[in-house]
Write a structure and sequence with these properties.
328 residues; 10 strands; alpha+beta; three-stranded antiparallel beta sheet
Length: 328
């Protein structure tokens, strides 16, 4: 399972250890946990991951640091990795006076519904940090993707409804008549209009006084409405930095149109996101798993993220043919 999104690497003779790590990643459900962290970062601007080592919250041991050392991280003590939504947490202690302090606006402990946890037991995932002066207002998280996209979503909803309203009443029938003739009988005019609306169809007939009355069809132009609505949807994609074909499954229009270039750029962005958002804490998780399995950190074992762009069979065959035809 671990090989689906990352590849573990090591020197020779450590295949058994890599298999153990992959099995432990499966037990801890690391891939789903990282997905939840990405979702929380999008919803709340931050995701928190509790490292469950079996300590009881009542005993008060959770306030002590959990260092990556055999003395503090006992072998076999890692039970689970538990996602915690930021709405249930608040920072307990952080430095605000000295900007040169390593803990300046960095919480050293957290309150989780009345339980005090040291920051080393609650891994913090945040992709869009805010300036230090704004961190208390954001619960020491970052700007959420939902907050950034809200205005664009509201614009799209308003555009969608406006287009729907216009399509519902884009044409109006105008009857020019002698209004003075109906001054004493307004109900007669209303009854005539109501009868016209009731029986209006392609096979209907409306009788007019050719000298005093005229019937016109006033229609609003509909050209470009589809493009306006599509642009409103594309603006949402720019906030998420996703191509439209990935966001909504809409393929680009036009002769020989292709989204391969956009998808490649999107995959490059995901690779950068993995390195900045996932790698620091994933490295921490990898070392915790090593301590849990063997009681020591094996620095020879590392990991890389697998590239998302994969060549199809035709492209791979073409590259192989060129390699074979090229002299050494």
């Amino acid at each position: 399972m671990a090989g689906i999104y990352l590849s573990l690497r090591a020197g020779g003779g450590k295949a058994d250890r890599i298999n153990q790590l992959e099995a432990e990643f499966t037990r801890l459900n690391v891939r789903d946990v990282l997905r939840r962290m990405a979702e929380m970062d999008g919803h709340y601007g931050m995701g928190l991951l509790y490292v469950d080592t079996g300590l009881s919250p009542v005993a008060g041991g959770l306030a002590s640091p959990l260092l990556l050392r055999p003395e503090t991280f006992r072998q076999g003590s890692l039970r689970a990795l538990v996602p915690v939504e930021p709405v249930w947490t608040t920072p307990a202690a952080y430095e605000t006076a000295n900007p040169l302090h390593p803990a300046f606006y960095k919480p050293q402990s957290w309150w989780v519904q009345g339980t005090l946890l040291h920051a080393t037991r609650l891994l913090r995932f945040c992709a869009r940090e805010v300036p230090d002066i704004l961190k208390p207002a954001y619960n020491f998280g970052g700007v959420s993707l939902t907050q950034m996209a809200r205005l664009y979503v509201e614009n799209w909803l308003r555009t969608r409804q406006s287009v729907s309203d216009l399509l519902n009443a884009f044409s109006i029938v105008a009857l020019s008549t002698d209004m003075a003739a109906y001054a004493q009988d307004p109900e007669g005019l209303l009854a005539r209009v109501e009868a016209f609306n009731r029986f209006r169809s392609n096979r209907g007939t409306f009788v007019l006084d050719k000298e005093r009355e005229k019937l016109e069809l006033l229609a609003a132009p509909l050209a470009g409405l589809d493009r306006l609505q599509a642009q409103a949807l594309e603006q949402i994609c720019t906030v998420a930095q996703q191509p439209l074909v990935k966001f909504a499954g809409i393929s680009p229009s036009g002769l020989n149109a292709s989204a391969d270039g956009e998808i490649r750029v999107f995959y490059d962005r995901i690779s950068a996101y993995q390195e900045s958002f996932l790698r620091p804490n994933l490295t921490h998780i990898l070392h915790m798993v090593m301590l849990n399995l063997w009681g020591a950190v094996d620095t020879d074992i590392t990991f890389t993220f697998r590239p998302l762009w994969q060549m199809d069979e035709a492209e791979q065959a073409d590259i192989d043919a060129k390699k074979q035809s090229t002299p050494p």
